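Meet our chain:
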Amino acid sequence: MSKTDRRKDILNKARMLIAARGYAGTEMEDIRLECQLSRGGLYHHFGNKRAVLDALIEEEVLGLVRVIDESEVWPIAVLLDFGSSHLGNDPGIVADLNAQEERLDYLSSLEVAFDRHLTLVLGKKMQEHVLPEFDAGHVSELFVTVNAHINRRQILGDWTEEQAAGFAATALQALVPFLKDPTQLHATIAELKKVSTS
């Protein structure tokens, strides 16, 4: 197996183990045995369980980036449609994290992955949708910052799904003055409002 394929295999098996046992119930030794690797073989790719978690989160973010990059549709709508658990999408690995410390680790890794992979692509894709007097990169940063706040409040249990959806609808309405065609937001805002009042 190539190094890339081996890494993918480790992450796929780690994801399945974490889904079945939870993050706390999955040890590096479990991952090693599932992958039929020596300790050196596993630790060559990942130094500890947190590094595995970081890589799983990065994979999820890279999936969002690919969808945004390949789509011709308005990028914020794509991001919300593909990545928002408020709209019924798979929440990803976070669903298997139960302890507060695990969720804080998740949020920290997610922020790094957003900074490293998502923000720049989103800014570039937003350029044709933002009014010329505004910087598309700034509008994208604003969206990512608000999204991080929603993630934090919901993942740490401060907000219900309905509260998070309501705040997301309000945040999207706040983007309207920056956009050439804000009607692109209407369907998503309506759907979020529906979730927030259910």
The chain has a mean pLDDT of 90. The chain is about 70% helix and 0% strand. The CA atoms of residues 20 and 110 lie 22 Å apart. Residues 100-126 form the longest helix (27 residues).
